Amino acid sequence: MKRLIAIAVLLSVGFSIDSLLVGAASAAKPGGPTKLGPPIPYYAGNEYLSGQRHLYAADLNGDGIDEVVFSGHIRWGSKFRSAVVDNTGKNVTSKYIRPNKTSAELTEVYDLNNDGRDDLIFWGGTDSDYKMPSYVYLSKKKGPHTRKMVTPKMWYHGGGQGDLDGDGRPDFVGTGLGGKGKYVVSFKKKKLLARKIKYTGKKCCFDGLGPYKIHNGTDIAIGNFDADANIELIIADWLKEQDWMAVEVYKIKGKLIYVRDDDGISLPPEYFETAKGKAKIKKYYTTAGMKALYDLSHDVRLEPFDINGDGKLDLIRWSRPYSNDGAAGAGMGEFWPIHTYAQMLINNGKGKFTDKTAKYLKAWKMNIGTPYYFKYVDINKDGLTDIFYSAEAAWASEWKYGNFRKYTAGVGFLINTGKGFKNYGNAWIKGLQNKAMDASKKIFDYHETKLTPNVALGNFDTDADLEIASCALGGNNVGSK
What we know:
By secondary structure, the chain is mostly beta strands. It has one domain: Methylamine Dehydrogenase, Chain H (7 Propeller). It contains 5 helices and 33 strands. A hairpin with a 4-residue loop joins strand 28 (411-416) and strand 29. This is VCBS repeat-containing protein.
């Protein structure tokens, strides 16, 4: 059955224009006119339209104005097609990406080939009906982006950028929950290059590295985290026995990038920080319950960032641990994890990280989805880098699908105060998304009970301020009621 999604498009940051859904989000109070963009068709065989999951801002033509990119899963029989919408709300998918059949947990947006236009990496999506190859869309002077396929077929769940080969350009590495091998995607000598990572260590490893049979990498952070000259890859895992692993690049030869264990990297456990922090979450998780778990966290995200401004690369880690007591199986029914715990991990410069969340993060709300989308911007124009984060979820805290209790959408800003970060933003974005949902009800035969994908931060007009793009999901297009 043909389905559509409505894009209730742009919520502005600090500025408003007539033709888009806008609302201020800098130092000013949110507000502004709204307008619904066009329905974007995709196909599903199930009333729960699971395919469309993520929104991104991407300047695909190099004009300084971002387009909105939609991506998602081929899941439960749905045949989602990725889509692109311009800042007027027009569907311009065929102008940039064709063919557009992809299935991606997330999409990487950056100028891979260094031509002033954003490129797109749709990497095989976890929870898709089957394992998928990854697709790289490279911009060119005229016409749609050129599509390149990167194998093997994988279920990718996380990814990161970093200069693995020392050429001054960021390379891309995905990490996943299935398939074989790990690849580095680069653009060198005017060609797309996919090189395989060769692990030469001896430890119990995962995600295509080492002898461990189950690949359970959830995210990856890339950078120089210690005192040597080598680039490290820190991979998060959701298995209870492993939690994380670290390797360093020590040799590059042909289409192989060699990595070995880096014993100097050390991270504290997930979701615990200090005695005070431990007590804060104790009511959600029993000791017996945690021991019964097969895994610790449904989602773990790692973001490299200099938190305290000392020039050393720190880590921000989000995790969403299960609250299961072992009676019903992890992740089922009432045990579905809904409490995301954010940690500020400070690096001593030698790769040893210490949890200093209580010092560097204020007003974090735990009952939200784990953010998958991050953007680093000076949102309040004070010269300090702030962090925008977004997670798709349901705005209704008690919304349920089957036996799964969904969590509140995690959308907002971590505002940099110079002494740490203060969480801000979830409430006003919710209000603006409610306007989008109300508008979508006028043209769809049913609405997805306040279920929304993530939102995207970008520059969707010609001024210097940033805007937020949002959308609401719907059923059959029935026109205006």
